Amino acid sequence: MNKLLIAVSVFLTVSGIWGLNSKKISPASAECIDCHIQATPSIVKNWERSSHAGTINDEHVVSCAECHTIDPEKHRDTFDHNGSRIHTVVSPPDCGTCHPEEAQQYSRNLMSHAYGNLMHNSLYRHLIRSVTGEENDIEDSCLHCHGSMIQPKGIHQRETVFGEMEFPVLEGWPNQGTGRINPDNSRGSCTPCHTRHDFSIETARKPHTCSQCHKGPDVPAYRVYTASKHGNLYASNHESWEFGNSTWVAGEDFTAPTCATCHISRVATPEGEILSRRTHQMNDRLPHRLFGLIYSHPHPANPDTSIIRNNGGLPLPTELSGEPVRSFLISPDEQEKRLSLMKGVCSGCHSGSVIDSHFKRLEQTVARSDQLVKTATGLIGKIWEKGIAGGPGRGDSPFNEGAEKIWTRCWLFYGNTIRLASAMMGADYSSFANGHFQLSEGIRQLREVLEKSPNGKFEK
Amino acid sequence: MNKLLIAVSVFLTVSGIWGLNSKKISPASAECIDCHIQATPSIVKNWERSSHAGTINDEHVVSCAECHTIDPEKHRDTFDHNGSRIHTVVSPPDCGTCHPEEAQQYSRNLMSHAYGNLMHNSLYRHLIRSVTGEENDIEDSCLHCHGSMIQPKGIHQRETVFGEMEFPVLEGWPNQGTGRINPDNSRGSCTPCHTRHDFSIETARKPHTCSQCHKGPDVPAYRVYTASKHGNLYASNHESWEFGNSTWVAGEDFTAPTCATCHISRVATPEGEILSRRTHQMNDRLPHRLFGLIYSHPHPANPDTSIIRNNGGLPLPTELSGEPVRSFLISPDEQEKRLSLMKGVCSGCHSGSVIDSHFKRLEQTVARSDQLVKTATGLIGKIWEKGIAGGPGRGDSPFNEGAEKIWTRCWLFYGNTIRLASAMMGADYSSFANGHFQLSEGIRQLREVLEKSPNGKFEK
Amino acid sequence: MNKLLIAVSVFLTVSGIWGLNSKKISPASAECIDCHIQATPSIVKNWERSSHAGTINDEHVVSCAECHTIDPEKHRDTFDHNGSRIHTVVSPPDCGTCHPEEAQQYSRNLMSHAYGNLMHNSLYRHLIRSVTGEENDIEDSCLHCHGSMIQPKGIHQRETVFGEMEFPVLEGWPNQGTGRINPDNSRGSCTPCHTRHDFSIETARKPHTCSQCHKGPDVPAYRVYTASKHGNLYASNHESWEFGNSTWVAGEDFTAPTCATCHISRVATPEGEILSRRTHQMNDRLPHRLFGLIYSHPHPANPDTSIIRNNGGLPLPTELSGEPVRSFLISPDEQEKRLSLMKGVCSGCHSGSVIDSHFKRLEQTVARSDQLVKTATGLIGKIWEKGIAGGPGRGDSPFNEGAEKIWTRCWLFYGNTIRLASAMMGADYSSFANGHFQLSEGIRQLREVLEKSPNGKFEK
Q1: Angle A25-A29-A30 from CA coordinates, rounded to 5°
Q2: What does the DSSP assignment read for A180-242?
Q3: CA-based R_g, chain C, Å
Q4: ipTM of this predicted complex?
Q5: Quick count: other Cβ atoms within 10 Å of Cβ B8?
Q6: B114 CB near a chain A CB, below 8 Å?
Q7: Distance from CA of C99 to the nearest CA of B (A)
Q8: Per residue in B156-210, pLDDT tens?
Q9: Which residue of C351, C420, C429 to mutate against A (max A Cβ within 10 Å)?
Q10: Which residues, in sequence order, are bridge partners of residue B60?
């Protein structure tokens, strides 16, 4: 296709779709679009559908150059591209140029620290090694969600529709994990939820977006949701709901919550009373962390959890006996405040009696699941003691032997599922699918390991 | 918001949405709405969308007071609330005031007896205890679907938007399980399927509603459906189907069945021939019960299955060898009649040859799955005999030891799945997901337990 | 209903719905419809919605007789039916009358050979027997997807709405498996994807259709897709996509791919550049086969894989050590060509850098998963050597003992999942659900079998 044809096609697209804003594309972005409507047409089309394409900021709509050329010196992936200095990886500070509050909140979100919280925790590194064999595939497993570290590694030549061109070599790219370490040394990524390049709020508010990382047995929030009445109502009725209104009206825009409703969005009553403010610190309304660790515990006070040490020196927010390590965790007052924010969302649809009873039941189930996990942990402790498996006391990985894998399943999969299923009312998932039945089976298996094994190979 | 503002907003809502029926809200219900449009706005909005809001019954539309104030003396959860005597928990007899046939049919449904059928069966109590540890979390597991027993336990004070008020303390609440024991001593609940407060027939007819309790490995009907051609067509095309017509026309309103089509709804041909009458006794078209027990068997004749005893004195509809206990089960004639009702639904879309071949194949697969389960049961029998595990002969739980858990998986998960997958043509689920592969593995494991263990700790 | 009434209803239906084409129904098909609008109304209604009903071929629209009476002598299921010679099972050669290119391509598709590739492979027969007990239920398990062999077995009488009539007895029917052996001795079936009788391209292009056979743990492509960004965008946004345009425009008709987009459809840019031609040979864009066998390998050159033998004489495309058996597999040049076709689809939405990085990462992960599977296979080899399990060296099934089942899980479920999850970017499924965690656990279990067992029962 020659330049003239492209120009005509861009003109037609512009006049047909962008309408009034057609003249508002900055010269720099117009140049990008000139080629990319041919090189990567869907990206351009997606952007055309975005709010960015209709939002005038500083005389021009927010388009390619407005994001990909911010602060070129800070971005180590900046390269010369047809006369422009552009960077591939748009980072939260880039988005924060126009969305400073969201960027701030997200920086306090555990998710923005997901890379370091995993990779700078010696216990989790043991888990990674025991699960992936070594750590060779972690960009295709753990770091897919936690985020990779993106490292520019020079420049390479590549054939394109416009002839041979130069591009940066980016180790760890592509990746849209929530805690990505970007070439400007910032943490996080907005695109796991606000998918490029239409950044649709409708998509972000639908549960499928969260499900990309919250579906596996280690954090089955989405699966529990699909077994709940809320999830049933979403699946049955969402086609008539309105997902685009920034202030989301309970009972009018939607009749049952998605993940975003309870954890993120600004929710209001039909009369305009605000039930909850928007937050991008996802644990703002959560008194406890229910998954990802051995026991439930008050949420960490700092999003960088790699700093946590329990009394035994392990990087865990509880002792192996379940006691929370208070100094690293939010206070009971803060927990109370967060619970009350969550109850505020519930009150759009439920009476106070139902809400209070629900949270009282959740508290009991969580306590009980912690108790069952403590039984399992007591058994693995004895298994370590008897030397049937190595364990942390010998400096050995606590995750790589048969009995240790059973114990890992008990808390990482089953205890976790029981708590989430109570919190989100999806009991069909926790009874037999990956919860009570399996936890009781795991405890029984640990008992048998202990009973049947003579003292083990690790014994001295 | 002051009283005047509320009144205005109620008036506007009323005139805008309820149209002609606006004046038809009973004075008692109008009082409820006056406050609840502020206290729980979504409930009011949901009700506005319901058929109830447009249905005149005895001069007024069916609204809050019409349901929540029926027979106050019978409901032990009745309390004084702003001058009215209302009860929280609406029961099937309440719904039966206007829907007597549905209430009658549902009372003959196994589901309305789900609480007692579980809790008054000594074997199932063993299963509950072995699965949940004790029975502490059963409201967050088994009883979530089976229904809880709701017990009024006095009155408590609670802060509301209208100041401090008194409410009943209800043990076991909230719960929408199908066999709930209500404070008026009635059994069951209409709301697991007819979700409060819009009671939408569209929601009830979509498979997600049934999936809330029929998704786990113990009864994976929904998972099997999603692997079937029927489920594929639902997922691919339901957006253009019509779910609201009380008489549901095959080939016009829908082109593949949902759960409701085959098991509940009144289905007709485009020419108006009725293919099946509506029923709320869900096994009306089912000759066999395929899941939930060790072997398939003719459906129980009485919805209260806690009365069943086999020749060995166990509360089971078959012997441990698989023989059905005929005296408690429907007759072959009744089975034939039910099968023929089901075939009537199929005939909307399928020729007689296809229908007959399908059910012949189902019969063979069910018989074969029972045979495989019998192999597993024979092995656990020998394991009990040798004293490797305790078992019912010693008065011990048959569900709590390692080998017993393998056996439980064999029938409760795998045999069950094979039968459902044949019935609903979702073989991809039963081959490797939770069926044949796992059943053959389970039988092999039981064999190894038997071969490798010396006589056991239970031996005398 | 008497004949007159039926005639009137047919007339009304015809004039109301078929409009201009009403007179274009062939006399033979009109006779079918006369009765079948009553006997199987949904089939007629579905056909009315099809493109066939609007497509004039040789003066008439494509209706019942046009497909069900082709070449009566070739179809062994042909029978006399109200004066016509019709056959029940429409085969790919029948469809190929109007769609010769598609039929040709499909004949080169592994899927059209799915029956023989399973049933004529002695190792797979061992697998079937070990999984299903014997081979009694294979029509309700393996052959549901692979296709059954349909055998006419005489004629039987059956009561219909029009009185007693004669129909052929068809063993193996109903079945819509992809490699069905039809009564005209042809292979395959078009209806697994192009569902009877509307043959909707919209349905075929939605992922639920593929999911019917690609959801289980042996080939979890659909599950991986639902955990990917592509799957998220489909679930969140497909309601506004256009699935019916034969040339499918990236960025306009859809904004993220379904299965069909990458593997089958003709895809174009908004400017009309063709990114990929339509193919019904599903591996046309696939350099490697990632699932179904022990190791990944270049795709078989011939769709009949039952002819493959490795150096050890086993019907496998690789040695047990993982080496591909080059003579039966496509060449590196052909692999390169196929990869480049796939990259062509990607280029609708992604830049070359992202595409190249993705496929480089995939290559690494696949190689690494093969390495892990090789570890597992080495262990089962030693288990066979020590006589702990029988194995193929003794002419015994390699799939029926405890350790063998663990090994089977390692490659058939877990290695497979890791590869697919990398290929389709659904890492949440491969990390903990059915991939890395389970593969590392399986390898550990095999190691324990080897360490703990004395020399086995098979030892001489």
Answers
A1: 70
A2: -B-TTS-B--STTTS-TTT--HHHHHSHHHHHTTS-STTS-HHHHHHTSHHHHHHHHHGGGS-
A3: 25
A4: 0.94
A5: 12
A6: no
A7: 24
A8: 999 998 999 999 999 999 999 999 999 999 999 999 999 999 999 999 999 999 9
A9: C351
A10: B57
Instruction: Identify which of C174, C161, C173, C196 has the alpha carbon closest to the alpha carbon of residue B344.
Output: C161
User: Quick one: how far is CA C239 from the chain centroid?
Assistant: 25
Q: In whole angstroms, what is the distance from residue A333 CA to residue A323 CA?
A: 18
Rounded Cα–Cα distance for residues A294 and A314 (Å): 12
Which of A119, A439, C423, A436 has the alpha carbon at shortest distance from B138? A436
Tell whether C251 is within 8 A of chain B (Cβ). no
The first and second tokens of residue C320, run together, are: 């047990």
Integer angstrom CA distances of residue A282 from A111, A207, A440, C227: 8, 14, 32, 21
Report the residue of A223, A351, A450 to disrupt the B interface, i.e. the one with the largest count of B CBs within 10 Å: A351
Query: In angstroms, rounded to a whole number, what is the distance separating the alpha carbons of residues C341 and A290?
Result: 46
Looking at the complex, does the CB of residue B340 fall below 8 Å from at least one CB of chain C?
no
Residue B61: DSSP 8-state: E
Residue with tokens 């609008």: C37
Give the pairing type, strands B266-268 and B247-249: parallel
Partners of chain B (3+ Cβ pairs below 8 A): A, C
- Choose from A11, A12, A42, A409 for mutation: most chain C CBs within 10 A: A42
Looking at the complex, does the CB of residue C159 fall below 8 Å from at least one CB of chain A?
no
Is residue B364 less than 8 Å (CB to CB) from chain C?
A: yes
Assess whether the previous peptide bond of A174 is cis (omega < 30° from 0).
yes
Counting as contact any 3 or more CB pairs under 8 A, the partners of C are A, B
- Bridge partners (DSSP) of residue C250 are C254
Q: What is the 3-state secondary structure (H, E, C) of A110-124?
A: HHHHHHHHHHCCHHH
| Strand, helix or coil for residue A282 | coil
Q: Which residues does C416 contact at the CB level (< 8 Å), separation at least 6?
A: C218, C219, C220, C290, C291, C292
Q: Which residues of A touch C429 (CB under 8 A)?
A: 215-216
- Which 3 state secondary structure label does DSSP give C289? strand
The band of A20, judged by pLDDT with boundaries at 50, 70 and 90, is: very low
Three-class SS state of C273: coil
The region, left, alpha or beta by phi > 0 then psi within -120 to 50, assigned to residue A155 is beta
Distance CA C35, CA B351 (A): 12
Round the CA-based radius of gyration of chain A to a whole number and report it.
Answer: 25
pLDDT in tens, C45-54: 999 999 999 9
Cβ of B41 within 8 Å of Cβ of A358? The answer is: no
C-alpha distances in Å from residue A424, one per residue of A220, A262, B1, B219, C174:
11, 10, 31, 21, 42
Eight-class DSSP state of C272: -
Instruction: Using a CB–CB cutoff of 8 Å, tell me whether C347 touches chain A.
Output: yes
| Preceding omega of B197 cis (within 30 degrees of 0) | yes
Is A358 within 8 Å of B51 (Cβ atoms)? no
pLDDT in tens, A44-66: 999 999 999 998 877 899 999 99
Q: Which residues of C touch B353 (CB under 8 A)?
A: 88, 158, 167, 170, 173
> 3-class SS at C371?
helix
Give the whole-angstrom CA distance, residue B173 versus residue C259.
Answer: 45
- Structure tokens given for C273: 């550049």
